[in-house]
Design brief:
This protein is α/β, with parallel strands linked by helices. The strands form three sheets. A six-stranded mixed sheet has the order 4-5-13-10-11-12, sandwiched between helices. A four-stranded parallel sheet has the order 8-7-6-9, with helices on both faces. A hairpin with a 5-residue loop joins strand 1 and strand 2. Helix 5 packs across helix 9, helix 9 packs across helix 11 and helix 10 crosses helix 11. Ligand F0G binds next to helix 6 and helix 11.
Length: 419
């Protein structure tokens, strides 16, 4: 079964056995996983038809021949991730032909990271790895800790930038039993350390530079298209931090197209904040180079990343999908978060970056009035409740909904309620 997949360098194209524990090529560049999809899915039209009768399966299993055909079913570690809602919010935003939100915050650990972790931790389980590790801005660590906790005989270790993640994000790895280390640095500093550590010691790295995780994350785009009955939208808009997710989205859509399961390609838009926008700056210079930056504090703390590891993969997908990269302000992201939250759809500040980006691109006429747009919501608002409470308590904010306090008197309550 494992002969269906190989690691291949994205730069020099050297191939490695999929059973090797390896994250980079000898030339230093990242690897990607390639599958013999023609062998895994010999009849794509039939595969498509069978999917509908397979809805009882979890998403990873349903799409497994596209995601990771080499993984034996017996090694699967799942928390029933996937099958997340695709909300149609067009009525609230008629400036779009259609606007849909793919809510990946409705996964077991409340972020899209579960999609990659089902692949990554299952593969670690298959390889017999006892120790797994990830550096994180808070969501990778939560997902890794949960899946490692769910596997037998697997210990999770997480490296976090101390004081830079939300209390809810911190509560997750601790509760799931991972060894949790706060480091006096930023995410990029944690990422550097985790690479040094895993080069030296026998600990399996589960950051998205491990290309096995990218394969699991392809499910987000594939499932969205399945929900859309394979009608391809004009745009996918997605927030970008370490750039793994946009790479996964592109790879999955590319493979669907190559198999003839979809008949057109959407465009991709990656969005960053002004505080951490290395990919945006690279886009402005025609992707001629990446200038790593010291990422500044932002409400979108999960994407406060100045040196994205999957940069080369991301620009390859952006070029292939006629993509654009946008950057937005802190005020925009919090105001758009408030407007989506008000619809009863709780989104995190990082996801709001993508929403704000979609709005900015629409205002600029890059996204056209007659186009269909899907925005990827990457985590649930409840993982970042402080940002919402702070926003709504401050009356200077455009959509603030302040709480009121009263003494326990009916007349006082009536006064406040204007009755
Ligand atoms: N949205 C959320 C909620 C995230 O947690 C992340 C990344 C992203 C967007 C960006 O995705 O890095 O693939 O471009 N979080 C990582 C983490 C870095 O450690 O949890 P990306």
């Amino acid at each position: 079964m494992a002969d269906l997949s190989v690691f291949k360098c994205i730069s020099c194209y050297k191939e490695y056995d999929i059973q090797e524990i390896r994250y980079r090529c000898e030339c230093g560049n990242l690897l990607e996983v390639l599958h013999d999809l023609k062998a895994a899915i010999s009849n794509p039209q039939k595969w498509k038809e069978i999917l509908d009768s397979n809805m009882a399966e979890i998403a990873f299993t349903r799409y497994k021949s596209l995601l990771f055909p080499s993984l034996p079913d017996a090694s699967l570690i799942t928390l029933s991730e996937g099958d997340t809602p695709l909300y149609d919010v067009t009525k609230s935003f008629p400036q779009f032909n259609s606007l849909k939100l793919k809510h990946e915050g409705m996964n077991p650990t409340l972020s899209f990271k579960d999609r990659g972790m089902v692949a990554g931790v299952s593969w670690a389980n298959y390889l017999g790895c006892e120790n797994v590790i990830g550096a994180s801005t808070g969501d990778t660590s939560a997902a890794m800790a949960a899946y490692a906790g769910s596997a037998q005989n697997m210990k999770g270790i997480v490296l976090l930038p101390k004081g830079k993640i939300s209390p809810e994000q911190l509560a997750q790895p601790i509760s799931f039993g991972a060894l949790t280390v706060g480091i006096e640095t930023d995410f990029d500093g944690c990422m550097k350390l985790v690479q040094e550590l895993t080069e030296k010691h026998n600990i399996y790295l589960l950051n998205s530079m491990n290309s096995v995780r990218i394969e699991g994350q392809k499910a987000i785009g594939i499932e969205t298209l399945h929900q859309l009955n394979w009608e391809v939208p004009d745009w996918f808009v997605i927030p970008v931090g370490n750039a793994g997710n946009i790479s996964a989205l592109g790879k999955g859509l590319r493979e669907l197209y190559e198999l003839g399961i979809i008949d057109k390609l959407p465009r991709l838009a990656g969005v960053q904040t002004e505080s951490a926008s290395p990919l945006f700056k690279s886009f402005l210079n025609g992707y001629s180079k990446l200038v790593p930056q010291k990422a500044q504090p932002t409400k979108a703390s999960a994407i406060q990343i100045g040196d994205p590891v999957s940069y080369r993969k991301a620009i390859r997908e952006l070029k292939h999908f006629d993509g654009v990269v946008e950057s937005i302000t802190e005020t925009d992201l919090m105001d758009w978060k408030a407007q989506i939250d008000r619809l009863g759809i709780s989104i995190c500040p990082n996801s709001a970056v993508a929403v704000a980006g979609a709005m900015k691109l629409r205002d600029a006429g890059i996204i056209k009035q007659n186009e269909d747009v899907v925005v990827i919501i990457t985590a649930h608002g409840s993982k970042f409740s402080n940002t919402a409470v702070e926003y709504h308590q401050d009356e200077r904010n455009k959509f603030a909904n302040q709480t009121r306090g009263v003494i326990p008197e009916l007349s006082e309550l009536e006064r406040i309620l204007k009755l």
